[in-house]
Amino acid sequence: MSGLTAAAALAAIGPRTGDTVLIGGAAGGVGIFAVQLAKLAGARVLGTCSESTFGFLRGLGAEPVAYGPGLTDRVRALASEEVTAATDLFGREAAETALKLGVAPERISVVADGPAPPPGVRKMGALDAGPGALESIADAICTGGITVAIAATFPVERIREAVTMQAQRHVHGKIVIAL
Ligand SMILES: NC(=O)c1ccc[n+]([C@@H]2O[C@H](COP(=O)([O-])OP(=O)(O)OC[C@H]3O[C@@H](n4cnc5c(N)ncnc54)[C@H](OP(=O)(O)O)[C@@H]3O)[C@@H](O)[C@H]2O)c1
After folding, report:
1. What is the pLDDT of residues 13-29, one digit of tens each?
2. How many domains does the chain have?
3. Displacement of CA 97 from its chain's centroid (Å)
4. Are 35 and 105 part of one and the same domain?
5. 27 alpha carbon – ligand 1 mean position (Å)
6. Which residues contact 83 (CB under 8 A, 6 or more apart)?
7. What is the mean pLDDT of the chain?
8. Fewest CB within 10 A of the end CB: N or C in the chain?
9. In angstroms, what is the span from residue 68 Cα to ligand 1's centroid?
10. Mean pLDDT of 29-48
11. pLDDT tops 90 at residue 173
């Protein structure tokens, strides 16, 4: 689901060589796929996270930038060149930042529930992923092109803790429930 959601978010904006893509919430379960898929497509990737997550995000190939007030200025300083596309996996901040930086709305997508995105910005979900997306992601995992970070593993008896951890929205990668 998370891989397909990432694939759908990127299908809307078509990252390619020469692009600089801003990804909001880049270190989460969806973000780890989005970052790596955008890199595989040839794009430069800037990803939002908290400062304590910078090292993790660099390990995925993204250039980290802290979310929160002042994001537009920080992205401008980090990118040094034009940001050309964006996807927001957490909320609306990265999408709004991209608009302020002059990214065309049709090259911005969001996935999270929330207020309607600005006109032209598409909201995507796993069902919008293109045909063959799951197979491509599985192949990339098998051949080492995509790494699936495991944030934590819980036995099924402790699933409540797993859900609580996920709901706090500071997970880095996937949470595994062992049956
Ligand atoms: N996971 C799935 O399988 C899945 C499937 C389909 C759809 N979705 C949807 O996709 C969206 C993303 O889900 P997710 O599971 O990837 O992650 P999430 O739980 O929404 O977010 C986790 C990430 O968000 C970052 N974050 C926390 N506060 C932030 C803020 N204010 N601005 C930007 N980033 C912030 C965290 O980084 P720090 O720890 O560095 O703060 C963390 O890496 C959600 O709306 C979810 O409902 C998820």
Report:
1. 999 999 999 999 999 99
2. 2
3. 15
4. yes
5. 7
6. 20, 21, 22, 46, 75, 98, 101, 102, 103
7. 96
8. C
9. 14
10. 97
11. no
DSSP annotation string for 36-84: HHHHHTT-EEEEEE-GGGHHHHHHTT-EEEE-STTHHHHHHHHH-S---
- Whether 139 maps to a domain, the answer reads no
Q: Which residue lies with its CA nearest to atom 33 of ligand 1?
A: 25
- Please compute Rg for the chain using Cα positions: 15
Closest CA to ligand 1's atom 3: 2
Share of the chain above pLDDT 90, in %: 94
Could you list the residue range(s) of the whole structural domain that residue 157 is in?
149-179
Q: Is residue 100 part of a domain?
A: yes
Reported as a single tens digit per residue, the pLDDT across 89-137 is: 999 999 999 999 999 999 999 998 888 998 999 999 999 998 999 999 9
Sheet holding 63-66, edge to edge: 63-66, 44-49, 20-24, 85-88, 108-110, 122-123
In this structure, are 38 and 84 located in the same domain?
A: yes
Question: Could you give the C-alpha distances from 76 to 50, 122, 147, in angstroms and in order?
Answer: 17, 23, 29
Q: What is the CATH number of the domain that holds 83?
A: 3.90.180.10
